[in-house]
Structure formats: C-alpha cells, structure tokens
Amino acid sequence: MTAAEPPGAGLRRARGRRGALSFLGFMSSMALLAAASLVMIPALIDSAGAHAWGRIAAGQSVGAIAAVVVAFGWGLAGPARIARADAEGRRREYRESMIAKLVIVLPMAALAAGASWLLGGDHRGLAVLGALTACSIGLTTNWVFVGLGRPWVLLVWETLPRAGGTALGIALMSWGAGAAAGLLAQLAGMLVAFVACSVWILAPRAASARSSIPRRGLRQVLREQGHGVTSSIVSAGYASAPVILVGLLVPLVLPAYALLDKVQRQINAAAASYVTVLQGWVPRGEGRELQRRVKLALVVSAIGCALLALVLALVAPWLLTWLARGEILPPRTAMVLMAVVVAVNLMESVTSRACLAALGRIDVVARATAVGSAVGVLLLVAGVLLWGVVGALTGVLAGLTLRLAIEVLALRGSRRHSRQPAPVIDQPTGVA
C-alpha cells in the first residue's frame, strides 16, 4: 500500500480481480454450452431433416419441464446452503441431493418419454431421445460449484464433458451415424459429467466423510426441499409450452417456431452470467445505496437490452439461415419479434432476480409470473391459430411484457422500503 492509497484499497482490488475471474469462469461455462447447443441444430437438421428436428425440439421442451422436477429446487436453495455449510455439511447436502435425484429421475424420464412419444408424429423415437437428453440436465451439479465459488472446477468437471458429448454427437452425425447417435452422445456427456462431478465432490474426502452429521431420510429431504418447486415447474412449463402447443395446434409451422425458440433460449442462457453478477452486487447496498444500485441496474440493463434486440434483429436472417442450412426461414417479422422477446426476457430477469429480490418482493415475482403466464398462453393459442409463427411469438411477447410491467410498477413502490433479500425461483442451468 502506498502513502496515498487509502486503507483497504489493495484488498478491494484483490476482491475485484477474484470477482472478475469468477464471472469469467461462470460465463465461459454458460457460453460454451450455449454455443455447443446452437451448433447441434444444423447438425441435426442435416442428419434428420427440418421436420424431424422440430419434433426433437418438442421433445426437448417436454424434457425441460421434467428436468426442473429432477433438480427439485437444489438450483434455488442449494448454492446458499453450500456457501454457509462446513465441509461435512456440504458433503451431506450433496449426498442427499444425489440420492433424491436418482430416485426422481427414472419416473420423470419415463413420463417425459411417454409425452414426447405422443408429440413425436412420424419421428417418435427422436422426440423421445430429445426429451431424455433435456431431462438429464436436472442432474446438473453446477449449484455446488456456484455455492463454493469454484467456476473453473465447474468448467473442467461438468461443462467440458457436456460440451464434449455434444461435439462427439456432431462428429458422429457428420460421419453418417444418424440423429439418434448424436442425441445419445449428448445424453452420455451429461451422464459422464454427473458421475465426474460426484467423484470430485465426494471421493477425495471419503475417508473423512464418516462423521458426525446424521443422514436424513429421503422423505424428510424431499419435504424440506419442496419449497418453491411448484413455482419453478410453472415457470419452466411456461417457457416450454409454446413449442408444445405449436406442435399440437399447427404442426406445419413447428420447425420454424422451434428454431426461433431454440435461438432465443441459448442467447438468454449465455446472458445469465450478467444477471448472476447483478444478483450478487445489487443486494450489497443498504438504504439509499440499495436504491441507487437498483436504479443503475435497471437503466444500464434497459440500454443493453435495447442494443441486444437491435443487433439480434439485424443478424437474425444470417444466423437462422446458417443454423437451418436454408431449409427453415421464418418470416422477417418473426425474427424481429424473437429479438424483442430475448431483450424483454433478459430485462425481466434483471428486474425480478436482481432488483425485486434485493427489496424482498418475491411475492410480486410469483404474482407477475402467474398472471403473465396465464395471459401469454391464452394469447399464444389464439395467435398461432390465426397467424402461425408470428402470432405465437406475439402471444409470448405479450405475456412477458405484462409480467415485466407488473414487476416494474411494484418496484417503483418498493424502492422506498428496502427489505432483506429472498431466494429467487430459477431453472437449472443448462441447455439441451
């Protein structure tokens, strides 16, 4: 520390560097998985055709709902528990989650496979494989590494095996093995990641694991862990409902809608690191400082989301043509709507997870989610029947906009009364 340097400046710089490295690590994992998932799209279309890929995407949407049940809330409450616990408490928390997930995953995979079989049309087998691949994401252990603050360990032990499975699937399809082989390789990557992470978390310290804290029964674990699972399922159901409903109501436009849905999902997944950083930064203020941080987060995010929508609308024709190999080309209006949906969805995440959570207004988030989802689904059904892909996206956008409006109005009245932050309902990190 120099004479002119205030006390603690060196410590603050060190913390800032650690924070930047942590953000880079988590962002690298999310961006790599999102990129791998996007590259998988043209490989599947080349291998099986646009119509078959649409059915695969519908199966993945069903599997995404099942994944939320398999995750059973550990992505919500797990990181905080891991961060607060000692070494033995962390091992116990993970052992309990692993046992519970292994019990849940088989029946949920069977249900997802059955529903996907009904939605699969002429490509039932591929739809089922898509559902199983997405369902397996519920096994993710990323919440442990988030709680530990170990993003680079997450990258090595979970992200690389998952991305490697996707890369192997792409390679197999390019060699003529077929879409089923590609999906099976992707599924294998998730299972390898689950086993590898479990070994890292448990095996190196197995000798010291036989200790003092008693193991709770499965029923007790599930009962205590069930808080927030219902709301998580509702949120995941709304995110997956459009593809499922489009496939049921107007199957001919399913490939075009599924392509737009997949792209917007991966972009939002890649942007999740930004929301994560704000979730940690905003609540650290108190009183006027908290209000200042909420306002700054909203203003910066609004500008960034507007720019994101503009850039995405401009590059969408090229990006979608490349991803679909020219076999699927949604209307230009639908591309613009997709860009706006991405921006509004990201802005809603900042408002709910970073700002309202910091003010203790999770009740508003739950209410806005319920109202926006109900209105969005109704408008989606009417829109897709009247105007196809454009109508479906219009319904989704209307629901999201209503949800954001409710939250912003509540936020204006809540900024005067800062309260303790509460946990935010979220879906397990991952892309299929």
Q: What report would you give on this structure?
A:
- There is one protein chain.
- This protein has 432 residues and is mainly α.
- The chain folds into two domains: 18-227, no CATH class; 228-432, no CATH class.
- Helix content is 81%, strand content 0%.
- It has 16 helices and no strands.
- Helix 2 packs antiparallel against helix 4 (87-119).
- The longest helix is centred in the C-terminal third of the chain and has 53 residues, at 362-414.
- The protein starts with 8 loop residues before the first helix and ends in an 18-residue tail after the last helix.
The poorly predicted ranges are 418-430
Label the structural class. mainly alpha
Q: Could you tell me the radius of gyration in angstroms?
A: 22 Å
What can be said about the biggest beta sheet?
none
Tertiary shape:
globular
Strand percentage:
under 5%
Helix fraction?
over 70%
Number of helices: 16
Total discrete domains? 2
Q: Write down the overall mean pLDDT.
A: 84
Instruction: Tell me the series of helices and strands, N- to C-terminal.
Output: HHHHHHHHHHHHHHHH
Q: How many angstroms does the end-to-end distance come to?
A: 48 Å
Overall strand count: 0
